[in-house]
Amino acid sequence: MEPLSNKRKVLVQKPLNFWERIYLPAIAKGLSITMSHFFRKPVTIQYPEQKREFSENFRGMHSLKRDEEGRERCTACGLCALSCPAEAISMIAAERKKGEENLYREEKYAAVYEINMLRCIFCGLCEEACPKEAIYLDGDIVPAEYLRKDFIYGKDKLVEAPLNQ
Amino acid sequence: MDTAQLLFKLILVVIIFAISLVIALYSTYAERKVAAFFQDRLGPNRAGPFGLLQPFADGIKMFLKEEIIPTNASAFLFVAGPSLAILTACIGSAVIPWGQKLTFGSTVIDLQVADINVGILYIFGVVSLGVYGIMIGGWASNNKYSLLGAIRAASQNISYEISMGLAIIALLLVTGTLSLRGIAEQQHGFWANGYFTWNVFKQPLGFLLFIICAFAETNRTPFDLPECETELVGGYHTEYSSMKLGFYLFSEYINMFVSSAVMATLYFGGYNFPFMDMISSPNWVTIIGVFLFFIKIALFIFFFMWVRWTIPRFRYDQLMDLGWKTLIPLAIANIVITGIVITFLNR
């Protein structure tokens, strides 16, 4: 039968010749290969001190953004929580009081905004869902903790640092 | 032998013992570092500068680990195994000539613990004792993997001792003496009477056979079948923990050190080096000779590691094939050729 692909190869097993049978030339060749690696620069990145550069579309820890006047962009619409396939996001909305216009951009804001980093799968759907461009996964790798409860990140860890500070 | 000489010998024994332990200690570090460099990695570098304190950290860890003796193991033999392994590894260094004699005024210090006239036979006896530690430990563990590893070790050592002995017989035809001091003295300098003095140039095939057998006797890759992880879990030391395991690992490195020293003495001139006659002070010749002897040993140890991280392990039938069907006939042919050449040269 004709093979479907023309990739068929007939295996030819030649008997070993004298030099192949005494192993030694092959061993010498192998030793020279390993020796060439001996003087090569190690590829190791020593992690805590050195860090590998992330690619441009790397998705790390979330940050809640501020606008150009330093006000929180999030309006607590809940679309990010709705889009989240891992159900990692929860929030409690509150109404903006008079005199708080310099803190929150919209009339409604998130009083509590929590992401469970153990549930989060870093898919970036919250980022896509957000109509206010308030959440981005542009941070570092989520660091290790000792307790599960420490992985629930509140606004203290998520909101971007205020401007001019 | 008077008391002063006895004291010198005692001090020499302690020094050699300490040196072989330190070298074995740092061989573990060197092995990991060398392995890392061969694999484009960095190796241990956290404990101390360049990770130099790593062997001590490992040693402390070994001592602090829980000591487990399996319920159905034979307790006495279980402890005797590693003790015997490290004992036989250590006593091999007694007959190796580390250097020429040091002379201070009227006192002469001989840098060799015992210059017995059957030095090579002694080394041979000690090497063949080495397998008892493994055999006893593997049997006493009452574990099928340990027993299989021990049986492999025993049959492998027996097979390769034959060709090792035959390789040495050819060397003895050349040297005419069994004393390691005598063999080292014959290789004085590097070039004499129009030919190299080192035995490796007189016995290249013998050296090749000897080094292959040395790999097999020290259970190093490609002959590390007694402890191959993929087939036998840990081999003969599967059941061992704590410092008893440490002793087994340690005895392997001491064996490596001693067999490197033996190879350097028998084939690479021992403490002799080229142009040693141009230095007038005999004490300086001795000191440089001792230093270069240790450099030669270090190179051999490096070669052991280099091979370990290059060559895959033999299959067991291949191992036996190589030992019985290749090395022994080659060794016998080597003896015959050496004998014929010596007979014709002496006529």
Structural class of chain B: mainly alpha
User: What is the class of the domain at 63-158 in chain A in the CATH system?
Assistant: Alpha Beta
CATH architecture heading of the domain at 63-158 in chain A: 2-Layer Sandwich
Count of runs of 4 or more consecutive helical residues of chain A: 5
- How many DSSP-defined strands of chain B? 4
**CATH topology heading of the domain at 63-158 in chain A:** Alpha-Beta Plaits
Largest interface: A-B, 14 and 14 residues
Descriptive notes:
- The complex is a heterodimer of chains A (165) and B (347).
- Chain A is α+β, with helices and mostly antiparallel strands and 165 residues long.
- In chain A, 20% of the residues lie in helices and 13% in strands.
- Chain A is built from five helices and five strands.
- Chain A has a three-stranded antiparallel sheet. In chain A, strands 1-4 form a two-stranded antiparallel ribbon.
- In chain B, helix 5 (144-175) runs antiparallel to helix 8 (204-217).
- The model of chain B has no long low-confidence stretch (mean pLDDT 85).
- In chain B, a hairpin with a 2-residue loop joins strand 3 and strand 4.
- The longest helix of chain B is centred in the first third of the chain and has 36 residues, at 3-38.
- In chain B, the strands form two sheets. Chain B has a two-stranded antiparallel sheet.
- The interface between A and B is medium-sized, with 14 and 14 residues.
Q: Brief overview, please?
A:
With 165 residues, chain A is an alpha+beta fold. Chain A contains 5 helices and 5 strands, in the order H-H-E-H-E-E-H-E-E-H. In chain A, the strands form 2 sheets. Chain A has a 3-stranded antiparallel sheet with strand order 2-3-5. A two-stranded antiparallel sheet of chain A has the order 1-4.
Features:
heterodimer; A: 165 residues; alpha+beta; Alpha-Beta Plaits; three-stranded antiparallel sheet; 5 helices; 20% helix; B: 347 residues; mainly alpha; two-stranded antiparallel ribbon; 12 helices; 4 strands; globular
